[in-house]
């Protein structure tokens, strides 16, 4: 059974190693070296999938990455299934589980196939025309139908347990493709001494040479020659040959992405072995040697299983030892198919006839076929292929002198081999933005002027005969190497017994007899686009090939139109009455073949997805069961629950403890910038809205930074360490941005200033000690430093040491209480934290997190940039007009603040809000209106920016930005929420210790 | 990923850089002396040429320096990079044509 | 997992770097020259190059920037010399000893491992011994200094150390295949 279609003595598979796999639950056997497609064909199984739209039974068409039909899902289980793989590229191994796609309930009998009967109802643009109205159907009816019936494979539902690797690489010459041109190029460049990478998408280098058993290079078969070249390349330390590695994206400046599949072909990958590796290769020069793709012919029934590309059958025969059928009909417009017929006949397959579309084919291969006794029918087309799950017969018909098609004759066949000639694979060249030019003689687009440092060689630029391919490749390799400074000569080889492929070709739909109203001649197999669809698009007024592509979806499937583009172009050209070169070609988009998400994610998942930044006291907080929140990349303790407290209870306790005794808070994540130089004060004056000239050494000031448009960008306390040295703090999230903005002004606008900026964010661990007992806790620790109210008043700083560790001590407060911020070098952060904790515990010290910090500052009406501000608030809007220097001639944002719009009295201004019900905590972000009974849409006056329950005050508090808010003190506004409106009173935003008495103790 | 030549560090990949907008936009020496319209011009109005643009980049993950670059917006090809403070160089037609390719 | 790590260590090793003091010197040409001289160098190192004195290394990471690394026992002397040498020259000397942490990596796979983290070319022709630069290492800013044909010192900001070491170890496992 398994050897049914296997031809002894042919192929490169290892017949000594039998491999067992399953397809749609059925067990099959193949040999080591088989692809899923070749193994199934060896078992006589052509039917491998169902089509996308009409659910027609489909067989394998090609033997490579251009395969549009035989898409399978490989793997089993919710996490391990990879959908949409081409059976022609899946290498079998023991235990491989593959299933077909787009079929329900099973491959041979598919309910969706009724779509074929409804085909007249599913023309091009069907979705656009049908799923238009009523609008209410969009989400609930149309989308579910479209989603269920469209789509290819099924995505895995569980996280991917596989590993994926990533690597950047650099080389002098990157060669894409390891067929004859690519191998010749790599050899030339490698011998010259250049750093070379060669990538080939298949398992074995050699390309077409592995399928061509007749040509000779230096007296050897192509495969033997390829083996020798591969051995030589592998022996060169400057050359890296990658197989199973697809170049899928040609990025700018010669960065080419490769996707290497490391384990898909293995039954038992090594422990820890990555499944795939994504390479980003920066090449000085690129040689594209991507080969050419054979074109299908477009005729009624050209998608029947058993209808396939002629050269694919040769590959299955010579590379895998598989005959694709017993009785073949060849339909061709090119000589190459004659060689396929000869090889098949030689292997014992009956070749019933070769129908040649050309009126008088005359090549050497034609003569050889006739000599071999094969019936050659010139000037003959195929009208139709019959059969459902497998082709059984075809109708061949004479092409009449007037261009019409004569009476047809039925020919029995289980294999129909078609060849519309070759299309150079210009995908990567097109991705590189190179300009394609139409080659009149070949009737196809070939690479024209390059945009990148790149050259094409061999079949991908329309050079087909093997001797010329080798010469072209060797020259490209040598030139590329020379361009990177490695001179060498292009190697040469003697060739013999060469065929002459690519002399003919056909683009478009084959002529047919009759109107063919029910004929289904496919242009794009994967998206089920027929010749009629393309013609219809033109009839409906689409003129641009880009529009025709989108309307019909031809060329938009995962195969990116590899087999369909030129035929679609041919049909459009005829329908438009314009020559092909005037119609133009659509853009090829990456990826060349689909790439898994895992490959793109690479190492960047779970802990390695993003850096997780932790402070010195992080472990202490974790030991105490703190609940953390993400702030940028930082993890910050949000609250410290004890005895099963929820956040609300923990925050109330932390707030009360800090206000009544003392709290400890980790402020290490704040950004810090050391501004140093003789012009430091001048620079600060120009950057910040505040004045700095008069700030004495040892004093601090709240600094407010605007952007040039006058809107608040960042804030933080700034200490003057010395006349020429400021210790600037920024918000946690603003650290990098503020430094960048400062450098921008310094380097671009004021390069004459003698001042320099250094980030010290992570140099210092910052421990905030806040509360009436803060001084009592710290005083014994600071090695004799006088921190009394007189020596170190509010908003001052001192350098000293704590427990023997150098310290910058700031007397600052973001709580409204007596407060200190202890800055120590980060390596000592944890030790000093522990020391302060030990000293504070007897005083009832309580650790608090960011949530309590927010409540305490809101009670004081202190803003948080990014919470009260949104990039459109001026300093005055948020009640910080006092900070803006009136005497400075200039600072960043000053001119904008003078614009009328930024001084308008009805701007949103910071106010406090009190609810009538003291326990009602407003939702942040809710809107404010003047009247509860206003008709919708209501006129919005502002919004709530911060809202908390204040345990200290015993009622809720909120901050809000309200239009003309400061003139509305005492007014009642309303917060409309689901089903009701909450009345709120507008108040001063400072709710607690308005006069600031608690700070100055 | 573009390959950009930092005048100080040489060729580096795009991810080491941050684009900083059009170059040679000079901040008025005395902003308070310019009209609202002139200020708005300075703040907001930028060229969006199809072709060569002079723009600033910062080697933010490298040496940290800002510099200027001449780039063709159609092709992303750089003609040259040069230090801040230098005037916009004149580009000969041959170099411009090469960048447009 | 442990057997995987053992296997990888043969070709790649990650170790905590030495405990050093560090200062950033920024200034104009005169400032850098004075700093280099005070440090004991005959001149300012070229861009992206390092120069060494007993117990210390200077790295030219920017046109107007030198970073000094000092062994703890030489640190006070070096710092005093720098302060004295820069006293009357406009410049900025800021201690960053605790801002960043050194990680030493070495082994035959060291270039491959770095290539998984950064788009720079780590081939010894492009990145010779003695070269140092800042770059992006995966998603962390870092300094890379080639200390030998098969050894590099990385420095990243302190909070990025767990991310960086875990990344290096993960990549070291992958490059074996």
Automatic annotation (TrEMBL), chain A:
Which Pfam families does UniProt cross-reference here?
Answer: Fer2_4, GCV_T, GCV_T_C, Pyr_redox_2, SO_alpha_A3
Q: Which residues form the SoxA A3 domain?
A: 521-602
Keyword check for Methyltransferase, yes or no. Answer: yes
Question: Which organism was this protein described from?
Answer: Komagataeibacter saccharivorans
Q: What is its EC number?
A: 2.1.2.10
Question: What is the taxonomic lineage of the source species?
Answer: Bacteria, Pseudomonadati, Pseudomonadota, Alphaproteobacteria, Acetobacterales
Q: Where is the GCVT N-terminal domain?
A: 620-887
Domain Aminomethyltransferase C-terminal intervals: 909-993
Q: From which residue to which does any coiled coil extend?
A: none
Which controlled-vocabulary keywords does the entry list? Methyltransferase, Oxidoreductase, Transferase
For this chain, one GO molecular function annotation is: methyltransferase activity
Q: Which InterPro entries match?
A: 2Fe-2S-bd_N, BFD-like_2Fe2S-bd_dom_sf, FAD/NAD-bd_sf, FAD/NAD-binding_dom, GcvT/YgfZ/DmdA, GcvT/YgfZ_C, GcvT_C, GCVT_N
Q: What is this protein called?
A: Aminomethyltransferase
| Ranges for domain FAD/NAD(P)-binding | 172-444
Q: EC top class, in one word?
A: transferase
- Entry's family note: Belongs to the GcvT family.
Q: Where is this region: Disordered?
A: 486-508
GO-annotated biological processes: methylation; tetrahydrofolate metabolic process
Automatic annotation (TrEMBL), chain B:
GO biological processes: tetrahydrofolate metabolic process
* Species classification: Bacteria, Pseudomonadati, Pseudomonadota, Alphaproteobacteria, Acetobacterales
Tell me any Pfam family this protein matches: SoxD
Q: Which organism is it from?
A: Komagataeibacter saccharivorans
* Highest taxon above the source species: Bacteria
Q: What is this protein called?
A: Sarcosine oxidase, delta subunit family
Q: What terms describe the molecular function in GO for this protein? A: sarcosine oxidase activity
Query: Which NCBIfam families is this protein grouped with?
Result: soxD
């Amino acid at each position: 059974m398994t050897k049914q279609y296997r031809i002894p003595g042919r192929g490169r598979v290892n017949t000594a190693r039998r491999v067992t796999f399953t397809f749609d639950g059925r067990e099959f056997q193949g040999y080591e070296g088989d692809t899923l497609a070749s193994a199934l064909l060896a078992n006589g199984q052509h039917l491998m999938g169902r089509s996308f739209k009409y659910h027609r039974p489909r067989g394998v068409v090609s033997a490579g990455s251009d395969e549009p039909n035989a898409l399978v899902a490989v793997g089993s289980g919710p996490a391990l299934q990879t959908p949409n793989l081409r059976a022609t590229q899946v290498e079998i191994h023991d235990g491989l589980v593959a299933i077909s796609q787009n079929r329900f309930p099973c491959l041979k009998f598919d309910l969706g196939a009724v779509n074929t009967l409804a085909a007249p109802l599913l023309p091009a643009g069907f979705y656009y025309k049908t799923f238009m109205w009523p609008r209410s159907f969009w989400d609930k009816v149309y989308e579910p139908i479209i989603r269920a019936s469209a789509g290819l494979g099924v995505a895995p539902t569980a996280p991917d347990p596989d590993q994926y690797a990533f690597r950047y690489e650099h080389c002098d010459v990157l060669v894409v493709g390891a067929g004859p041109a690519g191998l010749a190029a790599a050899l030339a460049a490698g011998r010259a001494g250049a750093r070379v990478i060669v990538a080939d998408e298949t398992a074995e280098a050699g390309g077409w040479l592995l399928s061509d058993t007749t040509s000779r290079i230096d007296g050897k078969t192509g495969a033997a020659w390829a083996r020798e070249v591969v051995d030589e390349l592998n022996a060169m330390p400057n050359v890296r040959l990658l197989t199973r590695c697809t170049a899928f994206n040609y990025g700018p400046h010669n960065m080419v992405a490769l996707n290497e599949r490391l384990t898909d072909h293995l039954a038992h990958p090594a422990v820890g072995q990555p499944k795939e590796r994504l390479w980003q290769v920066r090449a000085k020069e690129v040689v594209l040697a991507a080969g050419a793709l054979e074109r299908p012919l477009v005729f009624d029934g050209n998608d029947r299983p058993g209808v396939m590309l002629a050269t694919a059958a040769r590959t299955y025969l010579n590379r895998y030892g598989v005959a694709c059928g017993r009785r073949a009909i060849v339909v061709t417009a090119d000589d190459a198919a004659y060689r396929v017929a000869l090889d098949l006949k030689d292997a014992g397959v009956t070749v019933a006839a070769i129908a040649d579309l050309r009126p008088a084919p005359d090549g050497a291969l034609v003569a050889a076929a006739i000599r071999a006794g094969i019936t050659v029918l010139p000037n003959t087309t195929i009208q139709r292929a019959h059969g459902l799950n497998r082709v059984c017969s075809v109708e061949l018909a004479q092409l009449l002198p007037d261009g019409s098609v004569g009476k047809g004759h039925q020919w029995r066949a289980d294999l129909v081999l078609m060849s519309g000639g070759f299309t150079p694979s210009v995908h990567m060249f097109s991705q590189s933005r190179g300009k394609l030019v139409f080659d009149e003689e070949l009737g196809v687009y070939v690479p024209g002027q390059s945009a990148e440092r790149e050259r094409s060689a061999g079949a991908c630029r329309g050079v087909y005969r093997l001797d010329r391919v080798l010469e072209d490749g060797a020259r490209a390799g040598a030139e590329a190497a020379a361009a990177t400074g490695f001179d060498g000569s292009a190697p040469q080889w003697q060739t013999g017994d060469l065929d002459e492929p690519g002399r003919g070709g056909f683009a478009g739909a084959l002529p047919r007899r009759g109107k063919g109203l029910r004929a289904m001649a496919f242009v794009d197999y994967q998206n089920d686009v027929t010749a009629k669809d393309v013609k219809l698009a033109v009839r409906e007024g689409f003129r641009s090939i880009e529009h025709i592509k989108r309307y019909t979806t031809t060329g938009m499937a995962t195969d990116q139109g590899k087999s369909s583009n030129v035929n679609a172009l041919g049909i459009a050209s005829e329908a438009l009455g314009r020559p092909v070169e005037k119609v133009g070609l659509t853009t090829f988009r990456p990826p060349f073949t689909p790439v898994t998400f895992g490959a793109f994610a690479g190492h960047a998942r779970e802990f390695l997805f993003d850096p997780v930044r932790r402070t010195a006291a992080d472990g202490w907080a974790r030991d105490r069961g703190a609940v953390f929140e993400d702030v940028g990349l930082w993890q910050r303790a949000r609250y410290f629950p004890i005895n099963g407290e929820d956040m609300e209870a923990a925050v109330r306790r932390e707030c009360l403890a800090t206000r009544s005794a003392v709290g400890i808070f980790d402020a290490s994540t704040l950004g810090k910038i050391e501004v140093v130089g003789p012009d430091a004060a001048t620079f600060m004056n120009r950057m910040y809205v505040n004045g700095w000239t008069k700030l004495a050494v040892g004093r601090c000031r709240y600094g407010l930074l605007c952007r040039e448009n006058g809107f608040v960008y960042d804030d933080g306390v700034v200490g003057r360490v010395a006349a020429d040295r400021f210790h600037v703090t920024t918000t946690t999230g603003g650290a990098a941005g503020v430094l960048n903005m400062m450098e921008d002004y310094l380097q671009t606008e004021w390069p004459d200033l003698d001042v320099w900026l250094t980030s010290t964010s992570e140099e210092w661990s910052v421990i905030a000690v806040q509360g009436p007992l803060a001084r009592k806790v710290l005083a014994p620790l600071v090695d004799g430093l006088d921190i009394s109210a007189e020596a170190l008043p509010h908003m001052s700083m001192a350098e000293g040491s704590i427990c023997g560790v150098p310290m910058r001590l700031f007397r600052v407060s973001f709580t409204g209480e007596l407060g200190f911020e202890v800055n120590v070098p980060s390596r000592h952060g944890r030790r000093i934290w522990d020391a302060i904790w030990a000293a504070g515990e007897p005083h009832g010290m309580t650790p608090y997190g960011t949530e309590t910090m927010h409540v305490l500052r809101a009670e004081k009406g202190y803003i948080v940039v990014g919470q009260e501000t949104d990039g459109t608030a001026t300093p005055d809007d948020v009640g910080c007009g006092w900070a803006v220097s009136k005497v400075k001639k200039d600072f960043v944002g000053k001119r904008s603040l003078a614009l009328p719009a930024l001084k308008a009295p009805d701007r949103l201004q910071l106010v406090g809000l009190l609810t009538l019900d003291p326990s009602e905590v407003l939702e942040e972000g809710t809107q404010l209106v003047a009247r509860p009974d206003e008709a919708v849409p209501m006129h919005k006056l502002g919004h709530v920016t911060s809202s908390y329950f204040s345990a200290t005050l015993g009622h809720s508090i909120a901050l809000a930005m309200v239009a003309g808010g400061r003139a509305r003190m005492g007014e009642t506004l309303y917060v409309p929420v689901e089903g009701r409106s909450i009345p709120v009173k507008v108040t001063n935003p400072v709710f607690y210790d308005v006069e600031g008495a608690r700070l100055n103790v | 990923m573009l390959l950009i030549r930092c005048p100080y560090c040489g060729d580096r990949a795009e991810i080491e850089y941050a684009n900083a907008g059009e170059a040679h936009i000079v901040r008025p020496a005395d902003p308070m002396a310019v009209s609202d319209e002139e200020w708005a011009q300075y703040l907001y109005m930028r060229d969006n040429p199809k072709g060569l643009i002079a723009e600033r980049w910062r080697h933010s993950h490298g040496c940290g320096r800002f510099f200027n670059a001449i780039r063709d917006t159609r092709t992303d090809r750089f003609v040259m990079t040069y230090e801040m403070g230098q005037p916009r160089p004149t580009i000969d037609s041959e170099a411009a044509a090469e960048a447009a390719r | 997992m442990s057997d995987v790590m053992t296997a990888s260590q043969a070709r790649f090793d990650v170790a905590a770097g030495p405990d050093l003091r560090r200062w950033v010197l920024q200034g104009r040409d005169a400032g850098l020259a004075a700093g280099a001289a005070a440090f004991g160098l005959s001149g300012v190192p070229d861009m992206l190059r390092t120069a060494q004195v007993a117990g210390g290394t200077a790295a030219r990471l920017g046109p107007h920037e030198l970073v000094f690394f000092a062994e703890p026992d030489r640190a006070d002397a070096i710092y005093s010399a720098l302060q004295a040498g820069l006293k009357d020259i406009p410049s900025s000397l800021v201690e960053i000893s605790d801002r960043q942490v050194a990680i030493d990596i070495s082994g035959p796979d060291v270039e491959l491992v770095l290539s998984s983290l950064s788009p720079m070319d780590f081939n010894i022709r492009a990145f010779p011994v003695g070269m140092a630069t800042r770059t992006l290492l995966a998603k962390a800013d870092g300094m890379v200094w080639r200390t030998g044909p098969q050894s590099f010192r990385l420095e990243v900001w302190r909070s990025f150390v767990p991310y960086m070491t875990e990344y290096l170890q993960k990549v070291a496992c992958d490059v074996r295949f």
